Amino acid sequence: MINPASLADLQAFATVARLRSFRQAATELGVSPSALSHALRGLETRLGVRLLNRTTRSVAPTEAGERLLSRLAPALQDIHGALDAVNAFRDSPLGTLRLNAPRAACELVLAPLVARFIAAHPGMRVELVADDAFVDIVATGFDAGVRFGESLQQDMVALPLGPAQRFVVVAAPAYLAAHGTPLCPRELQQHRCVRIRFTNGTFYRWEFARGSEQFEIEVDGPLAVADMPLMIDAAERGLGLAYVYAQYAAAPVAAGRLVTVLDDWCPEIPGFYLYYPSRKLMPAGLKAFVELLRSTG
Fold this sequence. Notes:
By secondary structure, the chain is α+β, with helices and mostly antiparallel strands. The protein folds into three domains: 7-86, Winged helix-like DNA-binding domain superfamily/Winged helix DNA-binding domain (Arc Repressor Mutant, subunit A, Orthogonal Bundle), CATH 1.10.10.10; 92-162 and 271-296, Periplasmic binding protein-like II (D-Maltodextrin-Binding Protein, domain 2, 3-Layer(aba) Sandwich), CATH 3.40.190.10; 165-269, D-Maltodextrin-Binding Protein, domain 2 (3-Layer(aba) Sandwich), CATH 3.40.190. Helix content is 39%, strand content 23%. The protein is built from nine helices and 15 strands. The chain has helices at residues 7-19, 22-29, 33-47, 63-85, 103-120, 173-179, 228-236, 246-254, 284-296, and strands at residues 52-54, 59-61, 95-101, 124-130, 144-148, 156-161, 165-171, 194-196, 206-210, 213-217, 223-225, 242-245, 259-261, 268-269, 272-277. The strands form five sheets. Strands 4-3-5-15-6 form a five-stranded mixed beta sheet, covered by helices on one side. Strands 7, 12, 13 and 14 form a four-stranded antiparallel beta sheet that branches. Strands 1-2 form a two-stranded antiparallel sheet. The longest helix has 23 residues, at 63-85.
């Protein structure tokens, strides 16, 4: 007779199969990759069937593993929902809240909210993952994500997060003295610009609007970076113009190290949104975070 699999082993298998990575699954579950691998081998031995195909570079469910996962995932969700419902009877929720957000949203709006949330709910842990790529928060095990409103899926609940945002074009005074000041966005194509590359390999096209006129500009320059603080640093060093959130540029502009240009082409835009799946039983930690967000609005 096959020994029954424990709930922990089934959860371990479902997490590895969903993330296709022992390392990422181990991080999510709070165990070591070697312990996780050992647990999965034990589960396969007890069931008498291989559930995962492993190579040095990848992990993927076998046909048997896919079939088990298709039945197991909704069952585990029901179990977690039932256990989380107990949180409704506590004075403060317990558990882990997993949030996925662009790096800028983490730094500009989420960090102070998370600090207030942890102070108000000491039994909660928060995993805040800074990720500029678009991810499926359900498939990757996040409770909620943060994005701009136009990029949200229609089946998600969305709440405004923080104030309206604004991009600005900045440059060092020395750069403008040497190369001139652009008077309209299309003149940027004759300037050196510090570009930012998305995780999918594409470069961000700078967006401008004035009145009814809206367009994007493909800029060029000697330097490309992965985040806006590096763009600010490069602009301060005179390497070119940078297109960044106004909050990032506020301090160096106030100190005179940077100057804004094309201000009339850079209007405010709607800010970030917190989004999460529409479901009847919201995890208690997420519910408490949403309540905090609404109380600050």
